[in-house]
Amino acid sequence: MIELAQDSGIWTATINRPEKANALTDKMLTELAEIAEEAGQPGGARLLILTGAGKVFSAGADLDAMQGGLATSPVWERLSSAIAALPCLSIAALNGTVAGGAMGMALACDFRVAVAGADVFYPVMKRGFLPQPSDPARLAALIGPARSRLILLVGQRLDAATALDWGLYDRIAQPGALMDAVRDLAADVLAATPQHVAAIKRLIP
User: How much is the pLDDT for 160?
Assistant: First the structure.
């Protein structure tokens, strides 16, 4: 249910479970973490793209798996930490709604490019769970503490235009042109050496 395509250093990991709104299981999260870890190795990816099949990026944790303990599994943090540590560029290509724990991998990416219908919400208060350990700090770094409280404490749902305005999203893609927008954003990085990209990333907190 995770598909990986590799093309000239561009790795595209697609969450492919559209019949379940790309809800994530432990196995899927482990596969994504392994991909991110491998992408960061010497000779790995120059660009890692995370996206989903269908009209939803991911609804977060699979409900059955969540009842079995997935909501508090360390695999979420393993995945987001591996993405955040990448020496290459990482972009979340958000083909639709981003919900719950799926936000963690998107927040850990360098950029988030979304379609116009990509709403975002993180209902940890309503569900009775804590967010992933690194998510609140990453969220606050992007949109500030007050707006982070609106999402995490109040459960506010943002449409894509608001997410862009707040700084949670970096670009809104034209209809049917999500991957074109991603490649356009990554053009200078792909033209540079991996060492140059990694050096600049190390300079940015």
Answer: 98
Indicate the domain borders of the chain: 2-122+158-203
pLDDT along the chain (205 residues), means of 10: 97 98 97 98 97 97 82 94 98 97 97 98 92 96 98 97 98 96 97 97 94
Please write down the HEC assignment for all residues of 120-185: EECCHHHHCCCCCCCHHHHHHHHHCHHHHHHHHCCCCCECHHHHHHHCCCCEECCCCCHHHHHHHH
Asked if 45 and 75 touch (Cβ cutoff 8 Å), the reply is no
Count the Cβ atoms, other than its own, within 10 Å of residue 116: 12
Q: Identify the helix (H) or strand (E) that includes residue 89.
A: strand 89-94
Residues 157 and 65: their CA atoms lie apart, in Å, by 24
* Residues in Cβ contact with 9 at an 8 Å cutoff, skipping those fewer than 6 apart: 45, 46, 47, 190
pLDDT digits (tens, 9 = 90+) for 64-114: 877 778 988 999 999 999 999 999 999 999 999 999 999 999 999 999 999
The CATH code of the domain at 2-122+158-203 is 3.90.226.10
Distance CA 180, CA 117 (A): 17
Paired sense of beta strands 111-114 and 171-172, if any? parallel
